[in-house]
Amino acid sequence: MNTEDPNSPPTAPEQKPTGELDDQGSISPVGGNPVAPLTGTPDRTHAALLFILICGTLLAADLWTKSAAFEFLDVSIFTTPSGFPAVTRSPIHELFPGCALEAALNLGAFNGWFAWAPWLLIGVSVLALPLCFFWATFRSSSYLFVIALASISSGAAGNLYDRWVIGGVRDFIRWSVKWGNTEYVWPNFNLADSHIVIGVAIVMVLEWRKPEISETTHP
């Protein structure tokens, strides 16, 4: 016998959870299929393919721009009497105020750090590549997290190639700021450096947002 009051307002159906929070702050539906291209969680095969595609594309862009910039600036790399590689004097070709092309060869890391230990830098890069690939594919990572690690790996691989083949990293992007009569110049860099910085920034934001997303999803 139906005892429901026909005049009572209809009740909304109970909302059931449709997904769960992974360790990178991504919400995936039950079954593991991604909710959105950047915030969902890819399976291991898709993560590996995405990692290889992004890393390979960014690596090709880095190596091509280095060669193109050095050719455009008409500079060459030679070996000094002390046995270290160096680059011929480069002109400064302004692209727009504050940004120019200037060829330089960096024997170390940022701003020449660890120039006395090239094999240390090579070793760190060699270790970083498989670690990033493992982290991106063998852990529950969001698409954006995989892209960030692929970006970091492409930068590490691009500079690793230069250190191994040339003996130093080819830099060609010059940023500067004029304040009065003084010009402040940022150390020259390349696309590989930018890929590393952008990738690290994305990882930091994702890690910082994990507690916030977790509290919102699991009150």
Outline the secondary-structure elements.
Elements: E1 19-21, E2 27-29, H1 44-72, E3 77-79, E4 85-87, E5 93-96, E6 99-106, H2 118-137, H3 143-165, E7 169-179, E8 182-185, H4 191-217
Antiparallel strand pairs: 1-2, 3-4, 5-6, 6-7, 7-8
Would you give an account of this structure?
The protein is 45% helix and 18% strand. The protein has helices spanning 44-72, 118-137, 143-165, 191-217; strands at 19-21, 27-29, 77-79, 85-87, 93-96, 99-106, 169-179, 182-185. The chain is globular and about 85 Å long. The strands form three sheets. It has a four-stranded antiparallel sheet. 30% of the residues are buried. With 219 residues, the chain is α+β, with helices and mostly antiparallel strands. A hairpin with a 2-residue loop joins strand 5 and strand 6 (99-106). Mean pLDDT is 82; it is low at 16-36. The protein has one domain (40-217). It is built from four helices and eight strands, in the order E-E-H-E-E-E-E-H-H-E-E-H. The longest helix is centred in the N-terminal third of the chain and has 29 residues, at 44-72.
